[in-house]
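[job 4471] stage=fold_predict status=RUNNING
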Amino acid sequence: MGSRILGFALIIISAAAFGTLAIFGKYALGDGMDAITIVFFRFSLATVLMMILLVANREPFPRGLTLIKLLGMGAVGYVGQAFCYFSALNYASAGLVALLFYLYPIFVAVLSATFLHEPITRIKIIALVTALVGIAFTVGPENGQTLGVILAVSTALIYSVYIIVGTNVIQKVSVIQASTVIFASAGVMSGLLMLVNGPHLPATTTGWTVIVLIVLVATVLPVVTFLAGLRLIGPTNAAMLSTLEPVVTVLLAALLFGEMLKPITLIGGGLILSAVLLLTHDEMKPPASGRTKTTGPGLES
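[job 4471] inference complete, writing structure tokens
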């Protein structure tokens, strides 16, 4: 019982930590940084810490085709996803961006059925319809954040493609191994893009502090605590508890920025999260004969 309580606590910490990313992102943008500069600092500094974890666990560095695929996932998939995520924060509230990002499990289900030939179950159909209704409520024209909505949905779509591509790759390495390579390649690619675009460095000490918090609190801490909690309570409970992430973001945005989402937006967000919970519960059931489960790389926004 004690280990399960610890596991639940670790996953809650992970979800809450991931939920701070949009908040810190808002502060970083307000300090004069642009999206690609934030992405560069986030992943390059996180790589150093992940390398320490890799060495401490005595895990080898991935090699061969697996290494090449992981490099591509980081340089293309994760950079694109993170860039859209932080760019969306320029045009939409942190809470709305966080809620829309959680469409990715729904997109994964659709892509899995299309490209991996996974069956469309009745539960998946219900979850999809629920999510679509949630989107209609959440991103109504009255929000006036059209570009931010497009970028946030793009973030979810890119991340879902990233998960589909990484489905087979991640089974050959640990999450720490995968995270180290993906973070490193994302750091290099975003660094090159930052040099081309021109760096927008933090203007104040507060800005540099936010960068450190993004790396420690919103990147490394949630990855490590999620892995530890996953071992103690299993994937179903971990996935369910992870839906606390956008809730934390919405609450912090209201407290710190005065971002009060409209009731209809909150209803829409609740429907999206309900769809995710329904889909997660269905996906975590023991597979029927011939059915292949699609799981993600265990990395978040």
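[job 4471] summary: Residues 289-297 have pLDDT under 50 and may be disordered.
[job 4471] exit 0
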